[in-house]
Amino acid sequence: MSTASIKQEIQAGETALGIELGSTRIKAVLIDSHFETIASGSFNWENKFVDGIWTYPLEEVWQGLQSAYTELTNTIRTKYGVSVSQIGAIGVSAMMHGYLAFDKNDKQLVPFRTWRNNITGEAAEQLTKLFNFNIPQRWSIAHLYQAILNQEKHVDSLAFMTTLAGYVTWRLCGEKVIGVGDASGMFPIDEKTHDYNAKMITQFESYTGVLGHNIKIRNLFPKALLAGEKAGMLTDDGAKLLDPTGTLQEGALLVPPEGDAGTGMTATNAVRKRTGNISAGTSAFAMVVLDKPLHEVHRDIDLVTTPDGAPVAMVHTNNCTSDINAWVGLFAEFAKATGQNLAPDALYKALFNESTQGDPDCGGVLNFSNVSGENITNIQEGRPLFVRTPNSHFTLANFIKAQLYSAFAPLKIGMDILTKKEHINTDAMIAQGGIFRTPKIAQQVLADALNIPITVMANAGEGGPWGMAVLAQYALNNDAHENLADYLDNRVFVHPESSTLNPAPVAVKGYDDYIAAYQKALPVAVQAGQDIADYQPAKKVTE
């Protein structure tokens, strides 16, 4: 679109805003009616480990949203000479799962318990057996039931619980709603009704009733909505939460809030059956839209849904790029100490390219990138480890390659269940995430790890918030009433810019050898979490 046309759409409020609260960054993306990004803004944040809980303070949610939105609007003002007073539709996405609990007066009862917490093992096991359906530790219902088992006092005051995306949408429009994809990470969804599974609700309410709790899931959980439905309208108070200057006016359409899995599927055009996508960031997850049910319950395979309610097999790992980022940060410090101030992208590129010179099996060096506990490998406490033997081929190339291999190792272990045990096949597997900003390197490692072709689109580094903006446009301008898969094919991804890499046989064999050694050594990583106490900096003594 021309500059004049974009300016006209901004002034007319015909744009769509996608917001995503990721693990390390909050980002806002404004797109035009042709799905092109007009401007974006971001805010960096990090979870905190407080009293044994991975959490974010809700005050920082709004600080981050306002900062990202301000950066976005400042860019528009500079580039187009106009202010943003109206927006056509707004969609909010965030990290899935977790536990945000409120009382009848909308007061937060306990700090936000994120997906990263491995503290609900007893609850997850009991509910999986009760439902005959896999309930992972990070799911909202597991957090609720664990709080009951722990006899936490706040449970008796609980009136509403939601996800992070559901919370932000609630504050912006006043409606307690959630997208069905995000809802599927709170409680199992019935494929036929696209709502919380009624049979399992009855089972849960009866089960907890024995423990003396009168819990009604439908009163407690947000209402589940499909992509394309209307969630509410931006209120005046909501507008001020985003834009304290008062420039943004009320009235924008709010669309069903989604999880980062749903926006990843949308941003990679992977909502049709037999398609799949992989998102790689602080955590990683692979999504395969199923064309047939699984034969059995697998503790490492979640069953969730697309934003329009189709069943999806999900392999979720708690760890992916955090350990790589930490090591690259260390190399950045070294470079600075030698007088070399390298931009982050340049440093990642140099190190990732060096990894191509490594041995196919990493030369006998092993890395465990568990910054937090890992559900796939049954590690309760995160203790990143790098291990080598006296005869290992210890080079920079093998060191970096081991970092890349270990980032995808839990994902491979989970995906092998789908491909080798359940014989689930896909017509396309598309990857996204910041690790793919350096062309081809991580993409090739992933293809070799899973032994399937991997496609990366041009928007691989920034897909999530853009995908949420697309879902907002879908609800705002779907005049043909197309289903989501057709809408993406016919309007959004008409001429996608992408590249596909096939697995290399030698590298596939090398990765298989690496993963065999990795799995054999897993008890060391487990023991490290048990024996090595978390470091607590000494408090400074003030006179």
From TrEMBL:
Gene3D superfamilies documented for this protein: 3.30.420.40
InterPro entries assigned to the protein according to its UniProt record, in alphabetical order: ATPase_NBD, FGGY_C, FGGY_Carb_Kinase, FGGY_N
Classification via SUPFAM superfamilies: Actin-like ATPase domain
BP GO annotations: carbohydrate metabolic process
Domain Carbohydrate kinase FGGY N-terminal: residue ranges: 16-240
Domain (Carbohydrate kinase FGGY C-terminal): residue spans on this chain: 277-475
Alphabetized UniProt keyword annotations: Kinase, Transferase
UniProt superkingdom: Bacteria
UniProt keyword annotation of Protein transport present: no
GO molecular function: kinase activity
Family from the record: Belongs to the FGGY kinase family.
Protein's recorded name: L-ribulokinase
Species annotation: Schleiferilactobacillus shenzhenensis LY-73
Source lineage: Bacteria, Bacillati, Bacillota, Bacilli, Lactobacillales
